Amino acid sequence: DLCVCPQQDTSALEYSHLCQERVKAGSHCQAALPATGGNNVASGVDDEFFAFTATQYLKGGVCKVATTKRDTLIAVYGDCSRVGAQDPLAFSNSEGHLASVEWPCVAGSVYYLFWNAEYLPGKHSFSIS
């Protein structure tokens, strides 16, 4: 069960202080695990969100996420308000091949990476550049 505090802003999600410890890190966009440029690790067993803050490209550039594991599914979002199939900045269903996505990014902006565990790929590393 997910405990949330009622609020006016439907794009924001806040967890009650009474149940924050029950929310598994990475299980929701608002509870994303940290990700950094370079190598990171996803469980590949649970669906997981990661938050990545771009540090390069003050005037804009292209960020990239790639994995060395086949049969993974990744989506990248610019915020948590429209997570799902509607508005990803990038998406790859790598059934049978390696996942790799690119999207326009700007330094200081936070991007949310969603690894779907549909194919149960197991623990795998992914790199962000």
Describe the 3D structure:
With 129 residues, the protein is mainly beta. The protein is 0% helix and 41% strand. The chain has no helices and nine strands. The strands form two sheets. A five-stranded mixed beta sheet has the order 1-3-8-5-6, with no helix packed on it. It has a four-stranded antiparallel beta sheet with strand order 2-9-4-7, with no helix packed on it. The chain is globular and about 40 Å long. The protein starts with 32 loop residues before the first strand and ends with a strand. The model is unreliable at 6-12 (pLDDT under 50).
Secondary structure blueprint with pairings:
Layout lengths: L32 E3 L2 E5 L5 E6 L7 E10 L2 E5 L12 E4 L4 E8 L4 E7 L7 E5 L1
Parallel strand pairs: 1-3
Antiparallel strand pairs: 2-9, 3-8, 4-7, 4-9, 5-6, 5-8
What labels would you give this structure?
129 residues; mainly beta; 5-stranded mixed β-sheet; 4-stranded antiparallel β-sheet; 9 strands; 0% helix; globular
